[in-house]
Design a protein that fits this description.
The chain has five helices and no strands. The chain is mostly helical and 145 residues long. It has one domain. α1 packs antiparallel against α2, α1 crosses α3 and α1 runs parallel beside α5. The radius of gyration is 19 Å and the shape is elongated.
């Protein structure tokens, strides 16, 4: 997986992770024993979602405004890391991105890899599906007397 694909996976997963965190928060709120953790979780949720929102905004500005990525290619990049782009365009885009970031390229890639790793750890901890959606398991219906 190229560096750009890693970034695309991270960016595409952010909204799903935030929704999963909301779902998890709601689940915590319904469990009586977890009330003491609700404020802590709310604080973590706000910090996490704020940080990710800022990261998304910076990436959107970089890709759309600075690198002038067309809307359809930006959407493809956000959906799947540009996997369906032609190889020549991937190389051209990466060169533009490297040129724009300069010496910050490595830090950008390190952050993207770190976020991807953390997302997958969070996905495992929250027992989410591969696409970061919430697992729903049908419970057997019971007759009430």
């Amino acid at each position: 997986m190229s560096g750009l694909e890693v970034v695309g996976v991270v960016l595409g997963g952010i909204p799903l992770v935030i929704e999963a965190l909301k779902f998890y928060r709601d689940g915590i709120a319904t469990v009586y024993d977890m009330f003491k953790y609700l404020d802590t979780f709310d604080m973590i949720y706000v910090e996490f979602s704020t940080t990710l929102s800022r990261f998304l905004q910076e990436c959107e500005h970089l890709y759309r405004k600075e690198l002038e990525l067309p809307d359809h290619q930006y959407k493809e990049f956000m959906d799947n890391g540009g996997k369906q782009w032609e190889a020549s365009f991937q190389v051209e885009f990466e060169q533009k991105l490297r040129g724009k970031l300069g010496h910050d390229w490595q830090a950008y890639m390190d952050l993207s890899r770190y976020l991807k790793k953390r997302f997958h750890l969070l996905r495992k901890k929250l027992d989410l599906n591969e696409d970061f959606s919430v697992r729903f398991e049908a419970l057997p219906l019971r007759k009430h007397i």
